[in-house]
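Work package 3, deliverable 3.1, input record:
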Amino acid sequence: MIDVPVVMLNVKAYRESMGASGMELARACERVAESTGVSVAICPQQTELALICREVEIPVLAQHAEAFEAGAHTGYVVLEAVKEAGAAGTLVNHSEHRMTVADIEAVVSRAKELGLCTVVCTSSVATSRACAVFEPDFIAVEPPELIGTGIPVSKAEPEVVRRSVEAVKEISPGTRVLCGAGISTGEDVRAALELGAEGVLLASGVVKAERPEEVLLSLAKGAV
Amino acid sequence: MIDVPVVMLNVKAYRESMGASGMELARACERVAESTGVSVAICPQQTELALICREVEIPVLAQHAEAFEAGAHTGYVVLEAVKEAGAAGTLVNHSEHRMTVADIEAVVSRAKELGLCTVVCTSSVATSRACAVFEPDFIAVEPPELIGTGIPVSKAEPEVVRRSVEAVKEISPGTRVLCGAGISTGEDVRAALELGAEGVLLASGVVKAERPEEVLLSLAKGAV
Amino acid sequence: MIDVPVVMLNVKAYRESMGASGMELARACERVAESTGVSVAICPQQTELALICREVEIPVLAQHAEAFEAGAHTGYVVLEAVKEAGAAGTLVNHSEHRMTVADIEAVVSRAKELGLCTVVCTSSVATSRACAVFEPDFIAVEPPELIGTGIPVSKAEPEVVRRSVEAVKEISPGTRVLCGAGISTGEDVRAALELGAEGVLLASGVVKAERPEEVLLSLAKGAV
Amino acid sequence: MIDVPVVMLNVKAYRESMGASGMELARACERVAESTGVSVAICPQQTELALICREVEIPVLAQHAEAFEAGAHTGYVVLEAVKEAGAAGTLVNHSEHRMTVADIEAVVSRAKELGLCTVVCTSSVATSRACAVFEPDFIAVEPPELIGTGIPVSKAEPEVVRRSVEAVKEISPGTRVLCGAGISTGEDVRAALELGAEGVLLASGVVKAERPEEVLLSLAKGAV
């Protein structure tokens, strides 16, 4: 559903990624995808999901969705609404929005029924391996100690990436591994891909950059 | 900001209120507001907030917003994003999304700074009185035993409404009381207003109706 | 049930307050109560509640109890168990264990039925006033910015204490106010009492002291 | 640390399992262990952990412990306190107290450092397999649809037990599988053991029985 290698941007709930800036980030992703031919996906702010899905042609994912079905759940985002918005899938278990094991199982399994793609975020080789059991489309490994540091996991802890890829593939050969945390240059992206990752999950390095589109472009070039 | 008496519709995360149906509910609210002159507001699914704000002229509110500021909060909706979406405000502490006292204080206070309106949901006379201390724009009283029953609080427990209005006004004269739970006819709306409420908060009675617009219209007529 | 002025010690989940050290802290509280005639109460670690209740004669409180009734709630502490342990009551809504408004109402109301005392923790004048609505036995005001700083609220923000006392008494004359956050000397205790508080809620200042009993004694002397 | 096959009793937060009744249940477990030679363990109410550890000679486990270390965590039970109480270990991720993947990893890993035994509760073959990655001492499989029904998983869904045992052993040969949910007779216990389980996890079937000790005895006889 989402081509690889993929450059995936989680815009979080930053002030720099909402409203007009949120739309501009989505369009920048689209332009970079077009100009480089690299697969670029975006996870907009939850309130902007339906709007941004309508405006861009690249894959759009929710940042989070609940394990329960559509119903009387005021203020929560359910998978059916993600689907209705026109999104391609959702992040699951992001480090800022952890879920229980039972809920991860439920979200991944229900997303498959709905034809939605899942990107399960994990923090270590062991949690990557555990989550591979549910056979999500992607597992994004983000060692928590590197998040937001600008130190790429592909350099600081290449073994975490290599061993995560091995562990995940052993349990679920169809699941692809993304490299999160600290990726900020095209070289970091290339290093991640050489370690067996099939993409990267980005956030503040792009969102908070002075020229986000230039950063995205240089990152995407690392994946060509 | 929101005229009273107001008919406010919380569409929750129902399958019947997302996508094209969600947009149609918003437009129905708008048409009923226009044809009756009554103030009608809608709380769409979180993922559709920005899109629906763009499409209708009536007040639109988020179903929930967090107490923390914009930042690295993957999957959460912050007040700044509610504002950016063009919404008029947010529900706070809905019975399906309860908050701590400290967080209610923070959301109401930060919403005021941002020029956003707050509708704090409560379950009893005592909790209404407690939340009045934070001086929100609205307090919506929904006795939990009546939610989804079709039994209007204005009939089943008129004293809860009357005493909530008194308790709230004593602490915060500027806060308006909405009557939630079980309102399903124009007569229920009229009864609520006679007890001192300045509007109603609706959900399944409209969303799950065969002809939502007709139900909305009959409800709005109770507020004329 | 608990005499005032009271010196109340919350031992939290510190390594220095468990096992033999936890029991020794409880006995130190008891000795200080005996030697000074001042009311001293302790909130031991949850796992040690029944054991410590059996060993000392001073009032013992749980650090937290849930709003729901006894039942199938693995790993949670219910009020009935607090009562059965022989405790005098429980802390409610501590800043490290916040509760929803509806749950605070339920815990305070059910505690009254069970003859248990409640100490609701709050963070500001407004939240103190809001919680006074439920008429707990005590409200402990702990401005979060002062917790663990060693700066006594009675000195740093005397107005918070004075205004909290006024606000609480206006809503619920029978509720007593405790001064939390930063109390570390007998002089701080005296200052708190002069501002209208009827006791203090202590934690790390005692638990992490080299000689906890000496600190307790000097604090208690401030309440004589 | 805990001999197998084991009959493990989680007393939850039932009214029937606190205070004198809680102590009597612990003693009944001890007597049944002595008279049958079968390994019997108990998970008392959290408030009674230290007291019951002091009174009985059988393995005692906490019902829940947090992933974080000892510190300023009012009202929470940390592993260090479980150890100090003299307990043998703790239940982890019970269906009434679910945890995130990252927290399960942290609790199991920190428990090993402290010499504490872990019993991770799961709801399906897939979640059993996922949690086996962390190599806990035990995994207790409790299909949620059978909890409290009196229908033993070993009869209703023998394949869930058999396949859980296989899945767990494949990932972590040293981890033992317990059969939860619906076990109420010695015959159920025998069936579970024949399917490869090395014990059972019990709750309401014993706690709410008119004569808990007789039920325990008949269950233990199924494990001889």
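Chain D touches chain C at residues 10, 12-15, 18-19, 22, 43, 45-51, 54, 62-64, 70-78, 80-82, 84-85, 91, 94-97, 148, 203-204 (CB under 8 Å).
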